[in-house]
Amino acid sequence: MSEENHILPVTYRGQELEFPLQILQTGYTLKFVVTIGEAKMIFEKDDQGEYRAILAEAETYKGKMPEQGLLAAIHEVLQSLDS
């Protein structure tokens, strides 16, 4: 398994935001771990090839979940990277 750390630029509600991004590769599979505040969201492809967001360490996370619109904006950026 290899890991790479990056910054993911996202435009949301007219603001340019940057989030820490960790790329995990296991075999042929890529997972993107995006840190949003205190939440670490894992974006991975589902059976239809679309990214889904999963909260990492859900059982220990007690904070406020990121907004759905923000997750959708991150999803769009990740999809554009595949193109």
Defining key terms:
1 helix; single chain; globular; 83 residues
Task: Please tally the helical runs, counting DSSP H or I stretches of 4 or more residues.
Answer: 1
- Oligomeric assembly: single chain
Tell me the span between the first and last alpha carbons: 24 Å
Overall geometry: globular
- N to C succession of SSEs: EEEEEH
Uncertain stretches: none
Strand composition percent: over 45%
Count the domains. Answer: 1
Descriptive overview:
It is a single chain. By secondary structure, the chain is of the alpha+beta class. It has one helix and five strands. The protein has one helix at 68-82, and strands at 2-12, 15-26, 29-36, 39-45, 51-55. A hairpin with a 2-residue loop joins β1 and β2. The chain is globular, with a radius of gyration of 13 Å.
What is the compact description of this entry?
This protein is an alpha+beta fold. Helices cover 18% and strands 52% of the residues. Strand 2 (15-26) and strand 3 form a beta hairpin.
Topology:
Layout: E1 2-12, E2 15-26, E3 29-36, E4 39-45, E5 51-55, H1 68-82
Antiparallel strand pairs: 1-2, 2-3, 3-4, 4-5
